[in-house]
From TrEMBL:
Pathway linked to the protein: Glycan biosynthesis; trehalose biosynthesis
MF-aspect GO terms: 4-alpha-D-(1->4)-alpha-D-glucanotrehalose trehalohydrolase activity
Localization of this protein: Cytoplasm
Name of the featured protein: Malto-oligosyltrehalose trehalohydrolase
EC assignment: 3.2.1.141
InterPro entries cross-referenced by the UniProt entry: DUF3459, GH, GH13_cat_dom, Ig-like_fold, Ig_E-set, Trehalose_TreZ, Trehalose_TreZ_E-set_sf
SMART domains: Aamy (SM00642)
Catalytic function, reaction form: hydrolysis of (1->4)-alpha-D-glucosidic linkage in 4-alpha-D-[(1->4)-alpha-D-glucanosyl]n trehalose to yield trehalose and (1->4)-alpha-D-glucan
Length: 577
């Protein structure tokens, strides 16, 4: 007989509605209400608080077949007949991650259709699939960062059963799976949690009210977060999480929630017998996130590194607006590649203050940082959602790829970048409430109008065409320059695993030369040199040997190579006789 339970310290009376029939619940001193009800294993249910007749969804609902405002449905994770026993798992450190949005990765936009593309990803050579948020959010399509029922799987993608099939299919092909989890705020539509208890804090962030991590009754809210995180890895066999914007988690307790989550993730990993990884998205440039707990850190596995993205992107593209202002020079690019962070206790002109802290390169391997040339943020949060491939030539795209994938950092791609996808990735939403839909559209236009864009040029996120434009065009794959770039990406990824010098994770062994005026850079890793010409004229660089891989036609000798404009070469130094 199923037992229904809900933490609801606010109301004086709680009843559970199971298939239209109300049942009284009994509370304990901690504010948990429980009732055992004989019902079908897939029964629909919800909770009725005090004298309000509204039937509210379960804050820990596993399934919302009719959307986030409707009744929940029972779903038993323990009854899933998993068939991925051969998957032993692996850490993300040093791996290649492929970030994708389920709704735009394929035309159908479902977990099932994503399975059909997994063999392509295996052939590409990536190690992990990272799913943008799959938690339940209001509307049929969106980025997923406005989730309100964190335990439920977005039904239009395929619900919990579809996610199980996708993860199982990934594991059976040797691919790990990471899930993007958002614990710093709730979405604006369908958040009924304040009716149950003090889930929100008085501290706000750019996306709404913050989560109660340190106020009265915060212990249960913290458990709500930690149990949700563990559930993705335990019940759905995910291999780890990407934790969204952890700098927005305001926690002034002695044991930060990230440290607590990392400790419990390690315990689950030991019990499950497979590695589990936590990757932070952080705006802090704070090594404490990835420093081991026995050395005073939080013990997360890795963190995104926007400085590397900014340094590569600005050097290649020439863009310098906004938070790119401190980047763009070859010196900045070299410093960032060599040190992991550019801002490491240095002045940030964008923030008008000092920012960051130096990384201890002798203690923390480069694989603790994730390098990339594209992410959903760095594309989708541009006014037009335009990709680098819509503004740069293929040689420039190849340079960016070689610097990121050829570096000692853990690497990540954003879906479609590997073939220079021509489709944008724009910000889209499908709020059914007219007032919220209008506010979202007007807010997006106003935000970019303040930065000099014509408001009429900014896509309406509520327009279905904005969503449809953002879907990948798989007909491009393998055609012309798209196919050539894809082959280059495949070769770069393969080199990460076959060249011994490219597996060294320590930044102390990374040597970089550059010329500011001629705009070339050489990144040396043992006998391997990655030489790139970012300029518009041929250059000769002090690196030579066998050409292992190139974009363009370099002329290489024993100690030097001549590179055409906008080209890159991977060189292996001749063996000493």
């Amino acid at each position: 007989m199923p037992e229904f339970a809900v933490w609801a310290p606010e109301p004086k009376r709680v009843r559970v509605d199971v298939e239209g029939r109300l049942h009284e619940m009994t509370a304990d001193d901690a504010g948990w209400w429980r009732a055992a009800v004989d019902c079908a294993p897939n029964a629909r249910y919800g909770f009725v608080l005090d004298d309000d007749p509204a039937v509210l969804p379960d804050p820990r609902s596993a399934r919302q077949p009719d959307g986030v405002h409707a009744r929940s449905q029972l779903w038993d994770a323990s009854a899933v007949p998993w068939a991925d026993d051969q998957w032993a798992g692996r850490s993300i450190e040093g791996a290649v991650i492929y970030e994708l949005h389920t709704g735009t990765f394929t035309a159908e936009g479902t977990f099932e259709s994503a399975i059909e593309k997994l063999d392509y990803l295996v052939d590409l050579g990536v190690d992990f699939v990272e799913l943008m948020p799959v938690n339940a959010f209001n509307g049929t399509y969106g980025w997923g960062y406005d989730g309100v029922l964190w335990y439920a799987v977005h039904e239009p993608y395929g619900g919990p059963d579809g996610l199980v099939r996708l993860i199982e299919a990934c594991h059976n092909r040797g691919l790990g799976v990471l899930i993007d989890a958002v614990f710093n705020h709730f979405g604006p539509s369908g958040n009924y949690l304040p009716k149950f208890g003090p889930y929100l804090s008085s501290v706000s962030n750019p996306w709404g009210e913050g989560v109660n991590l340190a106020g009265p009754q915060a212990d249960e809210v913290r458990r709500y977060i930690i149990e949700c995180a563990l559930r993705w890895m335990r019940d759905f066999h995910a291999d780890g999480l990407r934790l969204d914007a952890v700098h927005a988690l305001v926690d002034n307790t002695a044991i930060n929630i990230l440290e607590e989550l990392a400790a419990e993730t390690d315990a689950l990993s030991a019990a499950a017998g497979r590695p589990l990884s936590l990757i932070a998205e952080s705006d802090l440039n704070d090594p404490r996130l990835i420093t081991p707990r026995d050395r005073g850190g939080y013990g997360l596995t890795a963190q995104w590194d926007d400085d590397i993205h900014h340094a590569i992107h600005t050097a290649v593209s020439g863009e310098h607006q906004g938070y790119y202002a401190d980047f763009g020079s070859m010196a900045t690019l070299a410093t960032t590649l060599r040190n992991g962070f550019f801002h490491a206790g240095t002045y940030s002109s964008f923030r008008h203050r000092r920012h960051g802290r130096p990384l201890d390169k002798s203690a923390l391997p480069a694989t603790k940082l994730v390098a990339y040339t594209c992410t959903h943020d760095q594309v989708g949060n541009r006014a037009l959602g335009d990709r680098p491939s819509q503004n740069l030539d293929y040689g420039q795209l190849a340079i960016k790829a070689a610097l990121a994938l050829g570096s000692p950092y853990t690497a990540m791609l954003f879906m479609g970048e590997e073939w220079g996808a021509s489709t944008p990735f724009q910000f889209f939403s499908s709020h059914p409430e007219p007032e919220l839909a209008r506010a979202t559209a007007e807010g997006r236009k106003a935000e970019f109008a303040d930065h000099g864009w014509d408001a009429d040029d900014v896509p309406d996120p509520q327009d279905s065409q904005t969503f449809l434009r953002s879907k990948l065009d798989w007909d491009e794959v393998g055609q012309g320059e798209h196919g050539r770039l894809l082959a280059f990406y495949r070769a770069l990824i393969a080199l990460r695993g076959t060249e011994p010098d490219m597996t060294d994770p320590w930044l102390a062994d990374l040597i970089i030369d550059y010329d500011e005026d001629e705009r070339w850079i050489v990144m040396r890793r043992g006998r391997i040199a990655i030489a790139a010409n970012l300029g518009q004229a041929p250059v000769t660089v002090p690196a030579g040997g066998d050409v292992v891989l190139a974009w363009g036609e370099p002329a290489a000798e024993s100690s030097r190579a001549t590179l055409p404009a906008h080209s890159v070469a991977v060189l292996r130094r001749f063996p000493v006789k």
